[in-house]
């Protein structure tokens, strides 16, 4: 099947499986997959320390409809983006009572922002993934803390990553914004893409 055919098939699929999990920072991730991808998605969930849950009831199918559609990559990993905690918690109640989250994904207790704190501090407590990051306005403006787009490999599309180290020979070490538990990558400028300066999410 060609890539175009796969794209068409997945775009018209109905939710059959939900993959959900918590990253190292305790942030909620979840997405749904069609019937044709369930086996691959379940394997990806295991690889990423996430849970896989069949959308076998009307309630779960309804909740799946509130999630973004996931994607399984050739590497075996899957695209499972951030979701609202309220939706994540409703889905998590359907997990078997015997299910245990991996130790690295222990969910921290929510902390309410104290009165008088700045909006940025409140956003950080709410899990704003862009907190503390900046969007460079040019290639020569990429520095520590810059938010850019990068590929893990040529077949897997572009995703948000932020610079955690800049070397003297022009190499950038980056960490995936939405997948903090994935290994860091090293790229040169011509392997990166810039976001619009007014990009907010």
**Residue share in β-strands:** 15-25%
What is the tally of helical segments? 5
Number of domains: 2
Using the CA coordinates, give the radius of gyration: 18 Å
How many runs of DSSP E, i.e. beta strands?
A: 9
Helix fraction bin: 10-25%
Mean pLDDT: 78
* Widest beta sheet: strand line-up: 6-7-8-9
Shape: elongated
Structural class: alpha+beta
Distance between the terminal alpha carbons, to the nearest Å? 34 Å
List the uncertain runs.
1-11, 104-126
Tell me about this structure.
The strands form 3 sheets. The protein has a 4-stranded antiparallel beta sheet with strand order 6-7-8-9, with no helix packed on it. Strands 2-1-3 form a 3-stranded antiparallel beta sheet, sandwiched between helices. It folds into 2 domains: 10-103, no CATH class; 139-191, SH3 type barrels, CATH 2.30.30.140. By secondary structure, the chain is α+β, with helices and mostly antiparallel strands. A hairpin with an 8-residue loop joins β6 and β7. The protein has 5 helices and 9 strands; from the N terminus they run αββαβαββααββββ. Mean pLDDT is 78; it is low at 1-11 and 104-126. The protein is elongated.
